[in-house]
Amino acid sequence: MRTKSGGYRYPRYFLYAGLFLFLFLLIVGCSKTAPPSPSSTETTVPQESTQTESKQPQDQGPFLKKGEPIYILMYHHFAPRGYWPKQEVAVYVDDFSEQMDYLQQEGYHVVALRQVWDHYKNGTPLPQKPVVITLDDGYESSYQLAYPVLKKHNYPFTIFPVVNWLQFEKSNKPYAPDKSDYLSWPQMDEMVASGLCDVQSHTFDSHDKVNGISVLITKIKKANGQLETTEEANSRVKEDLRQAKTFIEQRYGWDVYALAYPYGEYDEKVMQTMDELGYSMGLCMSKIKHKNNLKAIARIPVAQSDGLNGFIQRLKSKQAQ
């Protein structure tokens, strides 16, 4: 349509049509170059893969399957070769080093005891061939000899000290491998600060026997020479376990959930007392009286005469159970 000035004026519908075409082409062009949305990405990744990546610990391979063993090793004292001969609880440190090397070479995964507790309580996955390292009593050799080996491998471990046996001040005396001295709490603090060391209970001061029976499960004589009543024995044991738990929790700020029974001996009353105090895991030696019970977990004792070959045989024996 010509205007009075000689130009042309186009009908409005041409303008609207042109604007619509421009917007259409713009939208189509953007949709071709835009990155895929999160929902479209999820559909291209198998669901199993995303679950595995979120749960599986790094460098730990497949998960433990039902029925496969969990290896909980039990050590006590350590010594340089030549010291403490024929004392089975004193493992030679060079043998210990070879045993730790073997675990790494053969694809075992050393995990914290708390991970095993979480596995039993909550079903949290563990890697295949899981190993837990526990050290009982709290000998100074744990710090002087075993700790450097464990630190070299970055292996977590749990110490079960008899709380009242440890020294509150760090000794200035040089380490004497011919002695069976106990740790100081400053030495324990140093190991805890590394992030590798967990501390749980081996009683406060009840690692003893009367007539060949652990004082944790039998009556003892009082100061007046008379035998405790059942009520008095139960009260003594409960107070001892409470003191140990309270001391460690206040020093380190974590929950004390595990008790290693002295001599591996326990009974129903001790298990009941543990429930009352908040202990949920009990560790024995190689023999247990209850199956499928978190308060009766068998461990693999490692002895001086084992060396490397005996150590390997103990692991294989656990596999065959």
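The record above closes out task 2.4. Task 2.5 opens with a second protein, given below.
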Amino acid sequence: MPFNRPLTSLVRPIALGVTTAAVLVGAGLSSAQAQERVRWQVPIAFPSHLVGLSTPVRYLSESLDEVSGGNINLRYYEPGELIPPFEILDAVSEGRYDAGFTWVGYDQGSIPSLPLFAGAPFGMEPPAYLAWHYFGGGRELLEEIYADYDVHPLLCSMIGPEAAGWFAEPLEDLDQIDGLRIRFAGIGGQVMERLGASVTMIPGGELYQAMERGTIDAMEFSAPAVDRILGMQEIVQNYVLPGWHQTFTTAHLLVNKDSWESLEPQTRAQIDMGCRAATLYGYSESEMENPKALQDFEDEGVNAQVLPDDILHELRRVTNEVQDEIAAEDEMFGRVLESQQDFMRLHGNWHVKGHLPRSYYAPEEIGSND
């Protein structure tokens, strides 16, 4: 026989392996049992089923519970269950809740620079924003901003560009904006005001009724997959693209500073890694669902209008005016804007020269040029 070892010589290593495995499992259980227990109530700004916007907080909650052996429990609550969605920063800052999940641009009234982190007009595309955030100084700037509010911010979700909104008629001229009652967020909302619109902020869960009842004439909220969930296509048939006002959209887990600093390093690392994973989850999910939702809209007769260059050029001109004025009044806004624009100049050279032009993106049918 080519292999003729005594049976006892085989049993010994097997037994040793079982014993080693048992020790490792025991050590793992011991580690899980020894880890601190975290029980946080987390109010969220969006209904938890919205693709890419809020589904990441569900992913975060479930992942942390599993990876910690049940020791880290972030229980999220739907908008309004604990507090109104626009009050999350104040509630976390004051320590009423350990953490909250929100679109930070909602607080631009008190912190003008936040929309630049939440979704900026004519800004970076998502991969570039992630590079700037993690490696270009963006995260440090955001932490500096929130330090004054005793809050530790964690990027915890990202999706690509939004749509530019739902309008009763195709948008052929920016003069049509004058006099509109429109729901529009962030710096883009200030651009709409400059063009003569009456801008209001309405939570996502109230938008369908507002449009149906005529409380507002037009609105923007998110990308196709989310807009489809809200049912806007049942009321309005003109869907304007691209999302010049938000070339990316983020959501953040805002953590009370004392709550964050009281955590053990292992727990902080798990939550940080969980948010990084949730960001990838949200972006990937939205990039899967948005093209399908847009196709469904078009199949159902929605007019998906792409804005012409002359309108985009004018929107960019007005955007630059608005941003320059804010920067002149708010030092931090100016610092963040300068940092982002410096990075865009650097990255733009690579993006233009290193990436294929968009006209080459969609594969051609075989034989289409024959």
